[in-house]
Amino acid sequence: MTDEPLLRVRGLTKHFPVRQGLRATGLVRAVDGLDFDVRPGETLGLVGESGCGKTTTGRMLVRLLEPTSGSIEFDGRDITHAGRRELRPLRQELQIIFQDPYASLNPRHTVGRIVAMPLQVNGIKPPGGIKARVQELLELVGLNPEHYNRYPHEFSGGQRQRIGIARALALRPKLIVADEPVSALDVSIQAQVVNLLRNLQRELGLAFVFIAHDLAVIRHFSQRVAVMYLGRIVEIGDRADIYERPQHPYTRALLSAIPDVTQLGPAGRIRLTGDVPTPLDPPSGCRFRTRCWKAQDICATEEPALVPRDGGRQATACHFPEVAAPIFEEVPS
Amino acid sequence: MDSSEPSPSGDPDDRPAVPAQRSDQDAYLRVHDLRVRFDTEDGVVRAVDGVSFAVERGRTLGIVGESGSGKSVTSLAILGLHDPKRTTITGEISVGGRQVVGLPDEEVRRLRGRDMAMIFQDPLSALHPYYTVGRQIAEAYRVHHPKANRREARQRAVDMLDRVGIPQPARRFDQYPHEFSGGMRQRAMIAMSLVNDPALLIADEPTTALDVTVQAQILDLLADLQAEFHSAIILITHDLGVVGQVADDVLVMYGGRAVERGSVEQVLRAPQHPYTWGLLSSVPSLHGDADADLLPIPGNPPSLINLPPGCAFHPRCRYADRAGSRSRTEVPELRAAGADGHLVACHLSAEERAAFYAEDVASVGVAR
Ligand SMILES: Nc1ncnc2c1ncn2[C@@H]1O[C@H](COP(=O)(O)OP(=O)(O)O)[C@@H](O)[C@H]1O
Ligand SMILES: Nc1ncnc2c1ncn2[C@@H]1O[C@H](COP(=O)(O)OP(=O)(O)O)[C@@H](O)[C@H]1O
Ligand code: SF4
Ligand code: SF4
Ligand SMILES: [Mg+2]
Ligand SMILES: [Mg+2]
């Protein structure tokens, strides 16, 4: 792993105008100034509650959405506003997997055709022919290569997600953005797909931006983790930092709210009240302050910057970070 | 709806009835040998195939299993919500001593909403978009309290909104469902379900669509309300973490059958069925070795039209051959698994299960 990032994101922002008739009446601040890097072969987990901007971020990274401002550098090239033609070679190296495998697969196309599509669109002729390459891909993701001629509806949810993964792998990408790839699957099938993605990452040296709302899934898949709240990253760090030494109150609240299967009885002690405010009118200062039990006056007036503590790799956007206690005093046995 | 007659004894799947729990006799809800079948174009769907359990007031039963295992069909049968023209239901369902199977529609309707109520995953399926939230809750109250006047019903609805933690309940009373956030809608539906103080509450994936911080609030709320109203609760979920947090007892379903049943400690701490082991080792945890692979259950859940013969789990069970050919030929009965009240449907002996479970746990590397 080199230290040169594969993906370099600075100040990435997406505001959606809200219109009534022809008049713009407001702005949804869906994503508001994200900074992060992803190094080759590394997985960055992007986690947060619904509406915090994960999907919008993922779609900007693969340029399905045009950023409002900020920059995206991929493999040393600025791709923030790259046009169609400039994007073409990039499409091969940067792929996306969606949450709903069914909606992203054309029901009238065979699996073979679906997986072959990226090769054909990009005019790629694999040495042994397209069919051989597609069957190799199907095998790689644990599908029967003989099922080349079947249609998406003939597959289960987990198998459909594998088809989506095979399609994403067709062009040998360097980075895959996976937007909630296992959220719609039963746990047993979810574990199959998580293991598959982990193996692919190890064997093919892929980098991932892995988006999920489930912190436990993220933990099993990511070396780095970024926690989002209302369009901002509130904390980012190595996996051990985030799960064992979280400093942001929101990270701690999220971890505390998860009913973990290894613990019986009522879960953690931290309870947030209320819902996430609307990104149409986010709170001034720290966006988390309306639900934060540590909020002081300064939190309403000054937005805390995402700053690293102790020169380390963990950065927290909070005026009063928790630096003392680890979150889990003891691991139950 | 078929009456509560036992199925004809020549029926090949007329398996021996399940032993009754000791507490069954005084439980508020008793389900015995419940079978639910749908006739479809593709064939007969045996969605529930001989399931028994009981829930006392003040206790929570968690029902877990992959999607399509018959959880929702079970709960809809208890509430009498299946279309009798397309559904064959046999067995016993007793709610507060009244037999629901075969009861005329009108009488089931009287039980529903007053003695038993349901919370769904999607509150919008229970709340009508054209009426204010408060009016719908007040109506639900008046249906079962015909003597209550408008003002009393309104007061009761406002009290319930307040009780489930909705701020400014009197103002919220006059708002429409779309003016509520997801978590608030879920609270409003809970308020509506509980407005008549039902003794039995069935919650089908009540928090699946919610964010974890809101899920935590709703689970806390259900626990508080249960302590206050002493209701019997069935919580259906695919999330074993949720079950571990709120359930007293657990029923594990596979292919429309009960494969394991016991207290939450028994089922989650000393699971006996290979399917339960598979569920547990599939779940990513916040503890233990994050680099260890998860241990998924191979394959997919079975079709309920064409269940595998013998133990329905055998095509996915890594221990199927260890129990000899019986796994493939003989449906295992739910029988005592050792500890008090703990039941399992598996041909393996207690010693074999203990040894294989130790193997399973060791291979995941998670302390459970
Ligand atoms: N096309 C759009 N127009 C207006 N608002 C949008 C659009 N897409 C997303 N949003 C809003 O942006 C916010 C972030 O959405 P999203 O990125 O989907 O969040 P997440 O994936 O974290 O759930 C939400 O408030 C959402 O309603
Ligand atoms: N009304 C119906 N007609 C035919 N099949 C049904 C009907 N309702 C449910 N099923 C089938 O019964 C099985 C069990 O469904 P369900 O109880 O909803 O599963 P879950 O455990 O996910 O709640 C599924 O295979 C489902 O397709
Ligand atoms: S900056 Fe203030 S309001 Fe924001 S998380 Fe920190 S303490 Fe809470
Ligand atoms: S009966 Fe056989 S196939 Fe079924 S769970 Fe037990 S060992 Fe596995
Ligand atoms: Mg999303
Ligand atoms: Mg269901």
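qc> Chain B touches chain A through 50 residues (CB under 8 Å).
qc> done
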